[in-house]
């Protein structure tokens, strides 16, 4: 892994479309309880058990008739309106869309580019899972390092995991949510990118109980919106992913903090937010090592939206801070972004790990 320390690059404010009621409906824990009992395994005992395990009370799914393209188009329009740029003036555009179908991401990008009449920029297309936003930041920094102009590089995350999860799978149904975000990396961005790192980490067999970390299977499974359909879904070795994922995020924060000067500056830690259990374990260790940092959690209303999770927190940063009785983000605050999760290219044996540091 190579740690990148960009010079003179900054991120715009982040936008999301979580408030688009025409795109999404809210799935509460009463519905998750029902769904969890549709499969062959043991479902959740009650709604309180769901909250304790997942930390989530609300999660979003696409409404019937809404497509991934609709979600992507909505967040692209909001980003262009908020930041102000011409898509065809961008040297490149980064897009993450995670899926069990290896063609789904490129298909979505082709449809989006056609809908927006984007012809000149080269798309950087990734199916990357939970560390996807960090991969996009890395891509943007490397791309800008090769050009002299102040051209913007938009970074989009479009996650619709209901398409590739079994709605009755207790490991996933309580935590996942649809989400989409947009931001722009450029030389004039107001939030300086100080660090960027991403890598694939092999997990020894003994640390994954001699089983795979993630695998896919094909069958007929319940839909979050009701009914059943035949599709390829993701399965997770929950205990192994939990233990190794927490360790990798702890390590990511340690490495990020070792490379910054936090003297007289507030540090905000915005981790990927896979589940309530994982966040509690993560924060328990980090609060001992870095007691002055502020640890942000917005799982309750936004859940785990794969690569959209971290940028969704950034899009609602002051709101999340206020909910934790903290002052709004201000210039000079350091924002540490650690993440770990599925490694799409080596699902059975590896986890992806990464981090970034922003100066607000």
Question: How would you explain this protein's 3D organization?
Answer:
By secondary structure, the chain is α/β, with parallel strands linked by helices. It folds into two domains: 10-188, Thiolase/Chalcone synthase (Peroxisomal Thiolase, Chain A, domain 1, 3-Layer(aba) Sandwich), CATH 3.40.47.10; 196-359, Thiolase/Chalcone synthase (Peroxisomal Thiolase, Chain A, domain 1). Helices cover 32% and strands 26% of the residues. It is built from eleven helices and 15 strands. The chain has helices at 29-36, 47-54, 68-83, 104-116, 132-144, 170-173, 238-258, 276-289, 299-302, 309-315, 317-323; strands at 10-11, 15-16, 24-28, 58-62, 92-96, 122-126, 153-159, 179-186, 191-202, 214-222, 228-236, 267-269, 294-295, 334-342, 350-359. Strands 1, 2, 5, 6, 7, 8, 9, 12, 13, 14 and 15 form an eleven-stranded mixed sheet that branches. A two-stranded antiparallel ribbon has the order 3-4. It has a two-stranded antiparallel ribbon with strand order 10-11. β14 (334-342) and β15 form a beta hairpin. α3 packs across α4. It is globular. The mean pLDDT is 95.
Number of helices: 11
Radius of gyration (CA) equals 19 Å
Question: Termini, distance in Å?
Answer: 25 Å
What is the 3D form? globular
How big a fraction of the residues is strand? 25-35%
Structural class: alpha/beta
Q: In CATH, what is the homologous superfamily of the largest domain? A: Thiolase/Chalcone synthase
Mean pLDDT: 95
List how many beta strands DSSP finds.
15
List low-confidence stretches. Answer: none
- Estimate percent helicity: 25-40%
